[in-house]
Amino acid sequence: MTQQWSPMNDVPSLKGKIAVVTGGNNDIGREMARLLVKKSAKVYFTTRSEAKAIEARKKILDAHPDINFENLQWMTMDLADIWSVTSAAEKMKEKESKVDILVHNAAAAITSTGLVGPGWEVHMATNFIGPFLFPNRLLPLLKKALQDRDADVRRYLGRFIFGFDTTRYGVSKAANLIFAQELQRLMDEQNLLILSIAVHPGEVATEGVFSINPSLVKTIARRTFISPEQGAVTPIFAAASKEIRQDPSKCKGRFVFPGGKIGNPNPVTSNEEQVTGLWRNATEEVAAQLRVRGLPSLQPWY
Predict the structure, then answer these.
(1) Is 169 a catalytic residue?
(2) According to a count of CB atoms within 10 Å of the terminal CB, is the N or C end of the chain lower?
């Protein structure tokens, strides 16, 4: 990925592709939805608030009257609520027969130490449990995309950004990285051309940073952090670039940094005991809560 790489100039047409972006009402999520729909993909973005979804959609369409308004849709979903995640996935199945690109952008990075749902810590629930369940619910649609004649690579993206509560946030995002890696292994075992990639967009001056961080950090963010528009570049590169499509083996199950650099940022991802333990515990915990709620079971990843 060169310094001159541009989503608008270097991403090929995505006409006929279906993309889902979680947390698409502002900042990086909204910018990603805008870029994907500008490249002719049909985009569904999620947000917890219907009012914010309507406002975000209007902002994009007002700024780009050339966009086919039918190609930009929204759904409400709270990643910390397994009922909400299941409901959103079912609605997606009713609307579309496939999903080509799934971007997990929504994340919690807050000062709260509260618990949600059955007693899950809010960061783990939003940043890991929800992104664990949602692609499982959408797995038939992700696999269906592989049957398209022109389909070559599908992507699941986990977003890693600067957070205020670094301990809780960092643990949840380390779990996210493990999930991306293990999901890739499962897809590879089935010889499925589904890419699972974790992405660091850079240190981005988002609304979340300005709303929860102390004044000093706000000042630093305004002076040194990149804009949401710039922050969307690396995720878009991972999701839709020709470079990734031409050589997917370089980044599958890996972590993509700004500039397209690829690495493994956390040693825990290389600890087999940690990886298998997290996957097993997540599966058991989510399965148990789905039973309690009377919701459909997890689908086999195979």
Answers:
(1) yes
(2) C
Is residue 189, in this structure, part of any structural domain at all?
A: yes
Average pLDDT, the chain: 85
Number of domains in the chain: 1
Residue 242 neighbours by CB distance under 10 Å: 11
Range of the domain at 230: 7-293
Query: What tokens were used for 197?
Result: 């990639």
pTM for this predicted structure: 0.89
**Residues 179-218: pLDDT tens digits?**
888 999 999 999 998 999 988 887 776 666 555 555 656 6
User: Residue 1 domain-assigned?
Assistant: no
Catalytic residue (choose from 44, 156, 169, 302): 169
15 belongs to a structural domain: yes
Residues 21, 130: Cα–Cα separation, whole Å: 13
DSSP state of 199: E
Q: Comparing C-alpha atoms, which of 22, 19, 31, 132 is closest to residue 77?
A: 22
58 alpha-carbon distance from chain centroid: 22
Does residue 206 sit within a domain?
yes
Question: How does pLDDT run across 64-107, given as a tens digit for each residue?
Answer: 999 999 999 999 999 999 999 999 999 999 999 999 999 998 87
